Protein: Pyruvate, phosphate dikinase
Amino acid sequence: MTRYVYDFIEGDRSRADLLGGKGANLAEMTRLGLPVPPGFTVGTDACRAYLATGSPPAGLFAEVDTHLRRVEEQVGRRLGDPHDPLLLAVRSGGRYSMPGMMETILDIGLTDVTVAGLAARTGDARFAWDSYRRLIQMFGRTVHGVPAEEFDHEWAALRATAGPDGPDAAQLRDLVSTYQKIFLRVVGHEFPQSPQEQLRQAVCSVFASWNSARARIYRRREHIPDDLGTAVNVMAMVFGNLGPDSGTGVAFTRDPATGLPGVYGDYLPDAQGEDVVAGIRNTVALPELARLDPASFRQLTGIMATLERHYRDLCDVEFTIERGRLWMLQTRVGKRTAAAAFVIAAQLVDEGLITLDEALCRVSGAQLDQLMFPAFDLAGAPTPLTVGVGASPGAAAGRVVFDSAAATAADGPVILVRRETNPDDLPGMIAAAGVLTARGGKTSHAAVVARGMGRTCVCGADALVIDPQRGEFTVGDRVVRAGEVISIDGTTGRVYPGAVPVQPSPVARYLAGELAPQADPLVAAVHRLLGHADAVRRLGVRANADTAADARRARALGAAGIGLCRTEHMFLGGRRELVERLILADGPDAVAGALAALLPLQRADFTELLAAMDGLPVTIRLIDPPLHEFLPPLHELTARVARTEASGRDPGRDGELLAAVRRMHEANPMLGLRGVRLGLVVPGLFAMQVRAVAEAAAQRVRDGGDPRPEIMVPLVGDVRELAVVRAEAERVLATVPDAPAVPIGTMIEVPRAALTAGQIATQAHFFSFGTNDLTQLTWAFSRDDVEGSFFGAYLERGIFEVSPFESLDTAGVGQLVRLAVAQGRATRPELTVGVCGEHGGDPDSVAFFADAGLDYVSCSPYRVPVARLAAGRAAVAAGTGTSDSR
Ligand code: ADP
Ligand code: MG
Ligand code: MG
Structure:
């Protein structure tokens, strides 16, 4: 027979899947001999059965009754005993903590009969009737959805007429009878007078609360699966509302905000747990308990020290004191800020409780990421103008500008405000302190690009009405003009008027070499844990960088080379004209002339880049995007040509450009003439780039440097494409005196390349997974189209837990990665394999890449420390860390 119910003493903390976090930890505390009221847990499998069928599984309540008998024996009271009734708390609690999202019902077991018994036993009739009132309200709301106002209204009325000491027992008894009438009117039947019936209904309604709207929304946000179900904890009630020597509280074993040692918490004398949440009276700081009840305080701090040693981590607890006797109602490893996570992990190493390996696993790349951004000093911040989506963390203040040109022209910090951004806004995004858009979510262009650059971004602030022509935006009736200062918080999404003071991140200053590691406890902790990550990780970390400035920054942040230099960025700006010449060239001589003009510019870029990364590998990708991306947009040209023609002049070059744009128009440029295909059909284009690389490297060699360029061919799908390009590249390399050996490899970003990686490796010195395109092409997603149109719905409906562009789809795209690594290395055991998509900086994806046996990840410079940390954690998780305890 299936078993669903476990006494606290039978469980332990390893069984949270079955018992839920709360139940498993109550079991653990019971085992430790701590004062936990007796009880039992109904496992999550009973909830899953209930949710699947709509009714409790057969035999469940018979089993509950058996366990209830044992609780009755331990407490020495029976449920429903008219003279001395046992009361029960029925508490939800799933595998993962979902604070306040599901239901808990207290004081189960009170009826018109037992209420008198409770009054007699406690000698406090007022307390007994007050408890009954609480039960009817909680039970009515939770089990039958009676709106809280129905009861609150009466309660408020009574409190208004009661004396200074609050309502007396008789008044509360009358209130209970009013509550029962409300219950009857709204629910359609009497409040149940059978304690067993109350218990059964309470258990079922806790099951059902798993699927409440707020619980579902919370799970989606926290990426908690929808099919786990909740456990139900049934335990004896203890009473914090039995007078001044009773009370209830919550506490942390260290400061959850800063991580610093000490006892933190709140205590509310003469109260039951829900009063703390309701904020009916003000709590006192926990140290006050030392004065009110020194014995309980000592016992509590002793228990907290025990728990911390036992769990080897920060714990939080909920406790109740009933007439001077302390009871523990809950504990768990406590939530904490990112800063506290680092500080606590390092402290616990010093205290000998955990190893450095464990400490590393206690902090995450996402937390380090948060700590690298500046933050607003919120004391005295004004009311926000509006709130959008916090898309790229950080705090930025600056004058409002509405276009890229104004952003680049301005001196002093600016906030670029756009309805949405596109690739043409890039210079403005680079120049701005922050980006604010009215449209788009966390995967919009603005969000993705800003995160990649470490630029603060708030997007989707849909209350903004932007009018660039008038140079203003409005939020409701508030008008903000170009040049006015606003502040945006990329973590919370808040947009403030004026300049909110910003505090630079000490962690970022340390990582940039501006602060000593001992500057403060947080910086010291980051220094230590990141150092350990570097010591244990197998996975190298490179950066994606196109300029020498980015390369220097990346190197300072710990990058061991460049994994992706996008040469197309070198064709933008003032050089567009040269590219236009190339595209318009008719005949081989004109093409050669245009390429010859580009050569010295490329060479100079590469020389600088190789100097910045001297001694480290620099992977240079040959031009990738379709050439028409370098031409003006069709509608712009059409308009320009039409204007010129209307005024009777010859459109000249514009006319030629327009013809070229029309000629090159592609229905689906992502799948068109780009990458290696371009190199194969535009004679001399790749050769020019290869020559620029070789000549730059040769120059560096002559200058005494140690250049290590690598040439990478994009969008290869077949080994023959690569073979042709490689042969041509090697011919060029051979003609450049002093050039070092230059490995030639390929992106693996087309599914066919992954599937034929064994063949491709015959021609490639290295692979680099382009996981952005590989994701697009594996899913048949055009990123620009899908993110805006239906990703929201997919996330909403649980088809994705996270966008596959944010975190690698390991089940699908990841399989192609594994396959290609295995086949590539089978052909060429010394093959170097890396990844250069955005996933290279995503902590979860980094863990996957480590496991897949890659040699390195390459990510934007700002994410290098995050990737280092994630790679260290991955090594520990794979069992290849050290167990060094210091
Ligand atoms: P949540 O998960 O929302 O914190 P809990 O199940 O912890 O819900 O219950 C909320 C509050 O109910 C607790 O903080 C505690 O004060 C009170 N409570 C829970 N169990 C008992 C009990 N056995 N006796 C008295 N009060 C209890
Ligand atoms: Mg709780
Ligand atoms: Mg690509």
Summary: Residues 37, 89, 91, 99-100, 104, 106, 235, 237-238, 248, 272-274, 318, 320, 329-330 surround adenosine-5'-diphosphate (ligand 1) (CB under 6 Å). The longest strand covers residues 261-269. The mean pLDDT is 92.
